[in-house]
Specification:
0% of the residues lie in helices and 63% in strands. The strands form 2 sheets. Strands 1, 4, 5, 7 and 8 form a 5-stranded mixed β-sheet that branches. The chain has one domain. A hairpin with a 2-residue loop joins strand 4 and strand 5. The protein is mainly β and 104 residues long.
Length: 104
């Protein structure tokens, strides 16, 4: 298992407290067909929503020559209280891709 480098995210328009909203992820998972998306790990700490996108490498002897992308894989999230939140996507180098959202 490895952390996927996320290039960008999209959040559904106008998130509302106590209603699910989508966070879509984009990036490159790996350089051949042996790479695949595995799962998301989501934690919320007050106004921070911390997300990790995890991938895996299959141990095949022959891997198709294709680049595998993270193309719109979604996390569906709910926040309980209206306010400003910071979505923090953890990257493989321990930095974060951040996006601030307003929840009504």
């Amino acid at each position: 298992m490895f952390l996927i480098k996320v290039d960008s995210i999209q959040v559904s328009n106008a998130p509302v407290a106590n209603s699910p909203f989508d966070i879509s992820f984009y990036g490159t998972i790996g350089g051949d067909g042996c790479y695949s998306f595995s799962s998301f790990n989501v934690q919320q700490d007050n106004s921070n929503i911390i997300i990790e996108a995890w991938g895996r490498v299959d141990k095949a002897t022959i891997c198709p020559t294709v680049i595998i992308y993270l193309t719109g894989h979604k996390v569906i999230h709910i926040v309980q209280t209206p306010g400003t939140y910071l979505i923090k996507i953890r990257q493989p180098d321990n930095s974060y891709l951040e996006k601030q959202i307003a929840v009504k």
